[in-house]
UniProtKB/TrEMBL annotation, chains A, B:
Organism placement in taxonomy: Bacteria, Pseudomonadati, Pseudomonadota, Gammaproteobacteria, Alteromonadales
UniProt superkingdom: Bacteria
Gene Ontology MF: a single term: chorismate mutase activity
Stretches of the chain forming a coiled coil according to its record: 2-29
Pathway linked to the protein: Metabolic intermediate biosynthesis; prephenate biosynthesis; prephenate from chorismate: step 1/1; Amino-acid biosynthesis; L-tyrosine biosynthesis; (4-hydroxyphenyl)pyruvate from prephenate (NAD(+) route): step 1/1
Name under which the protein is recorded: T-protein
Major site of localization recorded for this protein: cytoplasm
Subcellular location field: Cytoplasm
A Pfam family assignment: CM_2
Alphabetic keyword roster: Amino-acid biosynthesis, Aromatic amino acid biosynthesis, Coiled coil, Cytoplasm, Isomerase, NAD, Oxidoreductase, Tyrosine biosynthesis
Length: 380, 380
């Protein structure tokens, strides 16, 4: 490198440093302004996540960016990242309490990760929250005294038995709700055990989300929906979207979405392990897409075996779906063994057609994701 | 909403608009400054991607952010997103030409997507690039006249035959290289057919990457590596990382990374299709992780059946790996049918242990990815 080049680069880099300093100042300013919006919204009891306003704001910024020769996607991505931080911060402020005369909330399994998250959100919203765990049943009567909402958050395999054995004597005005990832059986158990309002909830996210903004909670109606309305409104104020569904439709979808997918991810990891694959060298050869897929597999095995055993073993019906997959796999392998490329491509085309417009949509979505995976790559 | 609340929100939002306007100005400024760095680097023939400098710069910004009460990850994510844009822009400027007396580059299959990308990169670096496709073989002699590098980029199933049939008469100083995703057979074919320098390349990315910055190209040495050195240097200048590997080790890893993974993704899509799953309702119930996984499956079916048939049918050895997976799947299903939770959890623990430190690492990585997937979620 010549001296002139070095000097030129040095000078430009100083200027970039200056710009970055101003960037940090602006970020600080924007976070503070959005926090003040949060305070005002909090005072007025407005939800923190306003999808339509957000969409309008982004559309405006995209146009402004275009006019300045800046790729619109760039400003959108940066603003979305900033908004994530603001959603996280909004938690510190607390949330509007929708139901001020509820009495106690008791979370059964409140020491579990998901129970803890809901306990935290309810506390931040001004409710008086108590946890009732394995060792607390001797004091159950005093803990449950004056309760207005019981939230069941225990492992799936224990849920129904616990409801039937322990929750037969709740006050009639009390809401009984659960957070289990299957809905038919727990809902049935709750309806048979408790005479008052009942609602089944399935939060479609793990306990490690920083904020509930944009997350989904599936709601299956049980009894006296009007008495449960405030709870759904409260969840909306936390930023989550409430999706109503019937318990059987929910469970059917979950066989494919959860049991099936977790099972095949489990087998994928098992297979890597049995083949004694060398992860470090796999990573060395990995494109962003495979690194992402490997991370998704590894992620599962960083979590609790019980949790996944519960999800996979919970539904008898998922055995059928999981078995069907085995048949399809065996059939496709047969094509490979026979070297039958033609039929393989025919099946491929059939599936493409079935995916329809979703295939290109997924392709675009995954491209954006892969780009951000690539952004994250550390220096090597 | 009271009038006071409305007015307060209005005022704050105006201020946020102002901040965003300044943000756009700064982005424009930063992109321009980095472009000027690019011009200087281009003139001096320096690579566009300097990992160590990037790491230092990010570390400095993180510290500055911390001092201002800004989460360090926030500024890192924003700067990485900005750098991606700058890498993309750097392409427009062209690249330093490492070998100025090469003569022609001929890309066989230059009309295919990957051939086109390499043709574009070589042209941007000042080389004289010609494409030789299916219909051009009658003019092959004139196209290949004065050639210094032949790059083979045709479907896997045609690669070896094409090399043996058509490339026996290249000038002895000419480099023969290929871009195939398997390496042993093509390398053998090239070495047997051509007496001069030979090198096998496997670009670990799809043709839809916007920039080669941070991407990986696997290099398998063939003959006269010193004559091929400029080519690897050239690839480095485009921003990619060159990973040296032996052809057999590469192919072995690829059986697990590519053939195996693509095959099981194929079966997953086939299974959804045969079960007549309702994608729209699956999406409605989907957590970010499942949406991401579904997008990865759908992505495959937005692409060419031939491409995937080629990858999956290319290696006889991958049948073994794909068959082993079937056995592991059948064994795990047996556990499910017997309701044997205990053994399931035992296997789970075994795999977790085998993943070792990679499991929590993957968990953290995937959490970051899932957060950006969630950021991207449009208003509903």
């Amino acid at each position: 490198m010549t001296e002139k080049t070095t000097a030129e680069l040095e000078q430009l880099r100083d200027k970039i440093d200056e710009v970055d300093q101003q960037l940090l100042d602006l970020i600080r300013k924007r976070l503070d302004l959005v926090a003040r919006v949060g305070v005002v919204k909090h005072g007025a009891g407005l939800p923190i996540y306003a999808p339509q306003r957000e969409a309008n704001m982004l559309a405006k910024r995209r146009t402004e960016a275009s006019d300045m020769g800046i790729p619109p996607q760039l400003i959108e991505d940066i603003l979305r990242r900033l908004m994530r931080e603001s959603y996280l911060n909004e938690k510190d402020m607390g949330f509007k309490q929708v139901k001020t005369d509820l009495g106690k909330v008791v979370i059964i399994g409140g020491e579990g990760a998901l129970g803890k998250l809901f306990g935290q959100m309810l506390t931040l919203s001004g409710y008086q929250v108590h946890s009732l765990d394995k060792d607390d049943w001797q004091q159950a009567d005093s803990i449950l005294d004056g309760v207005g909402l019981v939230l069941v958050s225990v492992p799936i395999r224990l849920t129904c038995e616990l409801i039937r054995d322990k929750l037969g004597n709740l006050p009639e005005h009390c809401i009984l709700a659960d957070l289990t990832s299957v809905k038919e059986a727990p809902l049935k158990a709750m309806l048979e055990t408790h005479k008052g309002p009942v609602v089944g909830l399935h939060p479609m996210f793990g306990p490690d989300v920083g904020s509930l903004a944009k997350q989904v909670v599936v709601v299956c109606e049980g009894r006296q929906p009007e008495a449960c309305e405030w709870l759904l409104e409260q969840i909306g104020i936390w930023g989550a979207r409430v999706v109503q569904a019937s318990a059987d439709k929910h469970d059917e979808a979950m066989q494919l979405v959860q049991a099936m997918r977790h099972f095949s991810t489990f087998v994928y990891g098992l297979n890597l392990c049995r083949e004694q694959a060398d992860i470090a060298s796999l990573l060395q050869f990995s494109s962003p897409i495979y690194r992402l897929e490997l991370a998704m597999v590894g992620r599962l095995f960083a979590q609790s075996p019980e949790l996944y055993a519960d999800i996979i073993f919970a539904q008898d019906k998922s055995q059928q779906a999981i078995g069907d997959y085995l048949d399809n796999y065996a059939n496709a392998l047969e094509l490979l063994r026979k070297g039958d490329r033609e039929t393989f491509m025919q099946w491929f085309a059939e599936v493409s057609q079935w995916f329809g417009d979703f295939a290109p949509q997924f392709r675009n979505e995954s491209r954006a994701m892969l780009q951000s995976v690539n952004d994250m790559k550390p220096a090597h």
